[in-house]
Amino acid sequence: MANPVPGVLGSFVHIDAATDAIRALKAKGYADLTVYTAAPNHEVEEAMEHPVSPVRLFTLIGGLTGCAAGFAMTFWMSNDWPILVGGKPIASIPPYVVIAFELMILLGALSTVAGMIILPLLRPTRGYMYDPRFSDDQVGIFVPCGADRAAEVQAVMTRAGSVEVRHETG
Amino acid sequence: MATVAHEHAVPTQTHAEVTRDVIATLGKPSRGYVLMFVGAVILFLIGLATFVALVKQGLGLAGYNPPVMWSVYITTFVFWVGIGHAGTLISAILYLFRSPWRTAVYRATEAMTVFAIMTAGLFPIIHIGRQWVFYWLLPYPNQRLLWPNFKSPLMWDVFAIGTYLTVSTTFLVVGLVPDIAAVRDKVSGWRKRLYGLLALGWTGSDRQWRHYSRGYLYLAALATPLVLSVHSVVSWDFAVSIVPGWHGTIFAPYFVAGAIYSGIGMVFTLLIPLRKVLKLEHMIQEHHFDNLAKLTLLTGSILAYAYAMEYFVAWYSGVSWEQTTFYLRAFGPMWWAGWTMIICNAFVSQLLWFKRIRTNVTALFIISIFINIGMWFERFVIIVSSLRNDFDPYAWGQLTPTWADWGVLAGSFGWFLMYFLLFARTFPIIAIQEIKEMIPMPRKRPGGSH
Fold this sequence. Notes:
Oligomer: heterodimer
Order of helices and strands of chain A: EHEHHHEHE
Shape of chain A: rod-shaped
Radius of gyration of chain B: 23 Å
Radius of gyration of chain A: 25 Å
Largest sheet of chain A: 4 strands, antiparallel
Helix content of chain B: 55-70%
CATH topology of chain B: Formate dehydrogenase/DMSO reductase fold
Number of helices of chain A: 5
Number of domains of chain A: 2
């Protein structure tokens, strides 16, 4: 069990109350928020103002690697074990497009999943407060902060319409 | 018969009700479920016993008879690969098209895809005879210093099917993770620990969703050309040869349309009883089946066109071998198989022009059985009727399938259904998070939602 991170966790039933709280907290300088939702939500995304995920770079690099590997493998193996059929090239591009295409998709997909796993880990959230209701029907906002700022965060969340606010002292 | 209301495409439940209703399917199994599962296990055991006999005594047990050296096993391989295609169409292609109705059915169809490809993958291995050396198909450094021939469509198949199985499994698992977390947060004891492990630390934080949503979009974008390529590659197993009845440029789109048609047929066959035994009638509704039926009508009509075009091209080509093959398909010794294919696929699908039929689940279930039979026979006709009437009439032969063919075919249904039913009881068969995404969350101020 990870050591709990000190902070304040607010639960919201209303989505507009949660986005009000996110904007109010950001306005007060709390940039390091974690918002829990049961499904992706455009209003939360807009309030959080995240840039587009770089996961597409993983897709691109994986796809290009797969395509190159497909052609390289087929050409090298054809020349390493030549099958000589009268007048026909030992290695020819059209049939190898199929292999290169399939490997492009395969490595593109696997590297996308790798990106989906690796990228969230760059900002570890171990020890952050969580509530099982966030995977059901409530929105949660966790603000890591010391006891000195907890009262201010609690006040912002309550004013925005939080149905419950909890404080972890660490 | 229920009346369809398309305006009800957005679910009427609350978020909490969605979680409750889907997780309820993971509780004590109903009598209907147990009966279905026992039936699947019996079929699987029949297939297993037949396979053991094949390994012990060899492929002579099956009905191979020159020149028909591809028969029931390759037919069944193509059949199961095709079944998988509807799942990817619904989960990936309709995701890119933002079709909201897909959310209720896509998880079940995606699981169907994975288990159908797992089933399909067995058949080339069974067919090669010496199943214990199937790994020779893979390019790996070996003592003999030789490599596979990448110009062979059978090698393309190895890569296409391998990629399809890997990517569709990945797609299914990625989609499951947030739903497994929702189950983890509702159960207790050892189940909480198990689902906790499988949820991979998912909390639904904004950072996780940010990368997840974008990554899922790219996975769908990669799966879309993949699904179209896989059955094209399978079709090239035939079309790249010069056998009459196989050597046609129409084969790739013809096979892809047929694959989606057969896959949706299997979706009906599985989901109509399953939604009853899992008590999900309020979530998988008639309008979902109506939309699936429209896709069936579209792909069935493409098939009807392809069948007609095959006969037209055979006549127009002036090639006597092509003409003989197609004449014999309709009026030769295998006429019954040829007409089963045409009636079940080209004609029965036209019943779906009628809304009363599209929205009647009993009628759809019966039609789906015709589709399953028709599509298995389509592959049987293409493979066997072309091989038995090759160029030289002196070499013509006949296929007589044996118990070893039918035993493995029955076993494949058992193998497939067993995994599908286990999945339906272990994991959310309806995508909780995607349904919730469609339901607006409550607001303290009225109006103004996205």
